[in-house]
Write a structure and sequence with these properties.
3-stranded antiparallel sheet; 41% helix
């Protein structure tokens, strides 16, 4: 029977590396759709939330995105050799994304805690699931700029605060993410139609109530808010 560490290594090694090769020179919009980036943001937000819950449990205020969660529980755990990434996962050779590689190694280290039966690790066993799922789906083109984690999804702070644990849990099932992408694609199609004919109307994918487009202008740039008439339903900005 495979242990957690072996399953983690196999999982990361099976990521389709073609998603990440020769993309450093490309614009974000040439790599993934707006809907996919919206789903990426959901996965990152849920990872931050889970880290926040762990931080609250451990009475910690914050950690860096690069911090190994296993170190929060057991600072004496043996470090894995980061330089052995391509030895452990040869299928990923050629991927030169530091955030991707560091988090994968932190995930491996977390799984070593699961394998020794650490009770806190077991309690938070799926803490890395959202971010690893992000990598599997091709959303791992992430970099650090100043104090932010940036990508086609926008930006998150590189410091994860314990207050993130107070956020509502997000559904990261394949079905929910697929629906999120569908909603964005539907809104984009409506906006395209609206720009040609401002009298055009459309309905929300979620509840079938009417979608409303509000035009905004800031610093000479025009952008649009598309929201559902139903409160707490669809609401997103588009340029």
């Amino acid at each position: 029977m495979e242990n957690h560490y072996t399953r983690a290594v196999n999982r990361i090694n099976n990521i389709d590396s073609m998603q990440y090769l020769d993309i450093s020179h490309k614009r974000y919009e040439d790599i993934r759709s707006r809907g996919e980036y919206t789903a990426d943001a959901t996965l990152i937000a849920e990872y931050y939330r889970r880290v926040g819950v762990l931080l609250q449990f451990m009475s910690k205020e914050s950690v860096s995105i690069f911090t190994s969660m296993s170190k929060i529980i057991n600072n004496e755990i043996e470090n894995l050799d980061y330089d052995n990434m391509y030895t452990i996962c040869p299928n990923l050779e050629g991927i030169n994304l530091s955030v991707f590689k560091i988090i994968c190694f932190n995930y491996f280290q977390w799984c070593t805690l699961l394998d020794v039966g650490d009770p806190i690790a077991i309690k938070f066993h799926d803490i890395y699931e959202p971010i690893i799922k992000l990598f599997e789906r091709g959303g791992g083109q992430i970099s650090i700029h100043h104090h932010e984690l940036i990508g086609g999804f926008g930006a998150f702070t590189r410091t994860i605060s314990a207050s993130r644990g107070d956020k509502k849990e997000l559904d990261i099932s394949d079905q929910a993410l697929k629906q999120e992408i569908k909603e964005v694609e539907h809104a984009e199609a409506y906006l395209k139609e609206y720009k040609l004919d401002s009298s055009a109307t459309n309905n929300c994918v979620r509840c079938r109530n009417r979608l409303v487009i509000q035009e905004k202008e800031s610093y000479g740039n025009r952008w649009y808010k598309i929201k559902c008439e139903t409160k707490t339903c669809y609401d997103q900005n588009f340029s």
